[in-house]
Amino acid sequence: MAYLLSRVRGKSPNEAHRILARLCTPSLRQNVAPNAERVTHVTQNVDGLSLEALSAVSGLSSSESIIEMHGNLFNVACTAHDCSYTSKNTDNPICPALGGTEKIVAEGNTEPIVKRAFLPHCPEKGCGQLLRPDVVWFGERPKHIEMIIELAKVADLCLVVGTSSLVQPASRLPAYVRANGGKVAVFNMEQTNHSDEADWVFLGGCEVELGRVLGL
C-alpha cells in the first residue's frame, strides 16, 4: 500500500473529475438535467480524487452523491469485525515501520516482514487490533454494494466513464439500469465488453467527451 500511496500522492483531479462533480451539484447541473431528482457518482477508484473535485467545485468536503465502492487509500479502518473505527490518514507510509517498502515493491522485490508491534493499532478503548488501509482487497465485498444496486435499479440513466467494465459487480450495474427501462451511455478510450449493450458510446478522452456531450 505504501507503493500505491506513493503513486497517488500529489495527483490532482482532471477535467473529467470536475465535470462529474458539477453533475453531482444540483445548482450546477440545472441546464443539463433540470428534472434530475438525484445524481449519484459511484467510483471504483481509491485515490479520493472524485471527492477532491467535488470539494473544489462545490465547496463540499463530503457528499452522499459520491460512493467510493472500493474505499479510499487515505483512510484507515480497524481489522476487528466488531469495531467500526475509521479515520483519515494521509501519512505515507501509514507508519514509520513501513518506510521504504514502496521502493522495494517498485523494484519487484519481496516486501520485508514487519513485526506486529510496529504496525498501527486501533485507538478505540478495549480494541487495539491492527489498522489497515480502508480499501477493498481482492475477494472482498465492495462497500455499500446493496445500496448501489438498489440505486441502479431505479435509475433512468447510467454514465459508464473510463472503465473496461471487467470488474464485478460494478460491470453489472448498467444491466440493472436497463432492466428498469433506463438508458446507458459509455465514455471510454476504446470499446468495452459491454459497449454493445449501451444506448450510446462515446470514444475518446473522457475529459473531452464528457464536456462535449454534457456541456458542463
UniProtKB/TrEMBL annotation:
Pfam families: SIR2
InterPro entries: DHS-like_NAD/FAD-binding_dom (IPR029035), NAD-dep_sirtuin_deacylases (IPR050134), Sirtuin (IPR003000), Ssirtuin_cat_dom (IPR026590)
Subcellular location as annotated: Mitochondrion
Domain of life, source organism: Eukaryota
UniProt KW keywords: Metal-binding, Mitochondrion, NAD, Transferase, Zinc
GO MF annotation: an example: metal ion binding
List of residues binding Zn(2+): 78, 83, 122, 127
Listed GO CC annotations: mitochondrion; nucleus
Active-site residues from the entry: 70 (proton acceptor)
Domain Deacetylase sirtuin-type: 1-216
Family as reported in the entry's similarity comment: Belongs to the sirtuin family. Class I subfamily.
Protein name (record): DHS-like NAD/FAD-binding domain-containing protein
